[in-house]
């Protein structure tokens, strides 16, 4: 007697989706190691064109949640440096941070205070929202944070960006 699998073997891998018309989407991520973190951000318009991105690394020991919170702050700062004031969707694959920002009134932790600072920075934009996405929809930000972590570099780019990032962007939308 053969048993049906609980999960299908034909699971379709989801991909990055363009933001709604009139919005900019900012994907970000963090990589955490023994004594260092890397963070990465990619900013795209409603057509999927890259407006900017980059990331960096810091030598410190923090939890994954703290690193993701730092990546969130850095992504906001990057959008501000690029003077992007439009309607913005911030997208990440760390569900706990997304849940915490949606329940901030009850959060009295140190991370909660950092998240409140990030949420207050949303006032810079016409509108801003943090949403969760699957890891497979956050590939470029994930590549950037791993690159910043492994190469121990800080980098900021606008429309002209590295070929490995370009290739990941193309794979993301095709």
From TrEMBL:
InterPro entries: RNase_H-like_dom_plant, RNase_H-like_EbsB-rel, RNaseH-like_sf, RNaseH_domain, RNaseH_sf. One of its GO terms (molecular function) is RNA-DNA hybrid ribonuclease activity. It comes from the Eukaryota. Residues 27-147 form the RNase H type-1 domain. Pfam families: RVT_3 (PF13456). PANTHER family: BNAC02G40300D PROTEIN (PTHR47074), POLYNUCLEOTIDYL TRANSFERASE, RIBONUCLEASE H-LIKE SUPERFAMILY PROTEIN (PTHR47074:SF48). This is RNase H type-1 domain-containing protein. The lineage of its organism: Eukaryota, Viridiplantae, Streptophyta, Embryophyta, Tracheophyta.
